[in-house]
Amino acid sequence: MKQDIHPGYGWVVFRDASADVAFLTRSTLAADNPGNPGRPEKTVAWADGNTYPVVDVEISSASHPFYTGNARVVDTAGRVEKFNRRYGRQDRSTR
């Protein structure tokens, strides 16, 4: 097996600003390796007293509608009828 081909793996805080939630996990983003996108420049002090690199994300499981249960149900039958009324399309069974 080849040696030294895997990126480093360390602790990183992912922060979702829209839900005001942050979580600490391990990621390859914590390593400074060639070919790696790079260690995040921002840091944050965590509850355990240590400082970790932080990555700001726009959406996470705390704010995504699928996980929060706030998904909207779309009335597809109403949309089809609205389309038919708007463009003057008639029901084919009446022809």
Automatic annotation (TrEMBL):
The keyword Ribonucleoprotein applies. Keywords: Ribonucleoprotein, Ribosomal protein. It comes from the Bacteria. Pfam families: Ribosomal_L31. GO terms for molecular function: structural constituent of ribosome. Part of the 50S ribosomal subunit. NCBIfam families: L31 (TIGR00105), PRK01678.1 (NF002462). Belongs to the bacterial ribosomal protein bL31 family. Type B subfamily. This is Large ribosomal subunit protein bL31B. It comes from Luteimicrobium xylanilyticum. The lineage of its organism: Bacteria, Bacillati, Actinomycetota, Actinomycetes, Micrococcales. The gene is rpmE2.
